Amino acid sequence: MGRTSCRGLEGESQELSHKPGRDCEMATLRVRVEESVFAVERATLVRDCEYFRALFRSGMRECQQEEVHVKGLRARGFLIALGVLRGERPILTGEEIIEVAECAAFLQVAPLEKHLINIINSDNCLLMYHTAATYGLLDLYHSAALFIRDMYRDLEDDAKCLPEELLDYVESLAPSTYVTVGTHSPTIELLQDFVRTVCYLDEDEKEWKVLTDLPIDASTTMAGVTVLDNKLYIVGGVRDVSNQVVVSCYCYDPETDTWTTFCSPRQLRYNFTLVGHEGYLYAIGGEYERTTMSSVERYQVSTGNWSFVSHLPRPVAGAACAKAMSRIFVCLWRPMDATDIYEYVPVRDEWVLVTTLIRHQSYGHCMVAHRDNLYVMRNGPSDDFLRCMMDCYNLTTGQWTAMPGQYENSKGALFTAVVRGDSVFTVNRKMTLEYIIEGKKWKPKKEMNGFPRIGSMWTFLLRLPKTGRQPEGQRVLNGNGRDLKNHVYHHQSYALQCSD
What is the pTM of this model? Predict the structure, then answer.
């Protein structure tokens, strides 16, 4: 491989304690990996790479050199790492995953491990899991194990190539469960309605069962509902036809089976979109006093504070939203025949137009994500609410594909779809239907009993504790991390045996 020049990301680096490191920080460093040489801005390496940050702070002779030779890595893995640090999101092959994981572990590049987590899928999850155990990438290890747990019935035969201890860890985790709640207004204790419940789907018995009762003052009517870090959040909602907003917000923790309250957004709102992402809740658009808004607020769970972020490009209520590869996407409609999809970029606090779908009656009611695809569901011909048309946008290629056929809403409310692994769950009063995503089609896989409640529904995924005891996997998550580290380090001597 010949010489390669790769420019890094622009931006200020953090303060360094050593003057020698700071003096060389602004220059360009040549990094030799195998027979290739890469020109990289030192600021990029300081910001994103623990290995080079420690090197430049050390005051050692190497931090003054114009070229550093890194041994034990492969040039292709380092090249991909630099691309990720520039903001690229490549889909990787099996060998590339191993090389990139090796680079992420050796150089301690957190954004690189995060990218690997974002591209876990059914084709590479076993390889990701074993590779993470080999190189001690704890976050990737746990994320891959959770993915495998959610698809364990489909992957059980292939997973036999894993060491027994790795399989034991997967089986100790709680799988994601399909959960739903209807639209309800607040009540009073004497008139507590038995249907004001959050329910989960028992897939073995094909029945919906009660998980918990809603708090008396909670409203799910025109509320914002989402899940973040395996906790259910309900924000806003209205009391009655006057659209009086419920001020209290609610959080349900399935681990403790308890509800807590937290403060409302600075701007009261209803009929808005609530998204949970990396420690924050985002309240997007909505209405107040029958006025549609473009304002957006985010709630930092760790501090309990709401703050305004960049407004949407235009006002919107009840916008369809999805997260794909740890990115937030929102549909904004332009009458009559266009749907714009915007991405919110938290690090820059800005909304970026990604693509526009131009279809007759392209008003998107729901959007879900699978791998690097966004699926936009909309009404059938002539506003036929019994049928659903679907279009797929691939984030990697930037191409739209019209999904073949029409999907019958009488068999599954696609406007409330939820993705788990390679499956899509839909529900209405008569039937709960699981689709399997195969190529460019969604094929019916399993039929279960419907959710026998009238009105709209909120659907989502939660990991529920195993009956009668706390699951071992959750104990690891709630602990100090030592159990997980010991489990991973125990397997670092294994050679890689699985491939995708």
Answer: 0.86
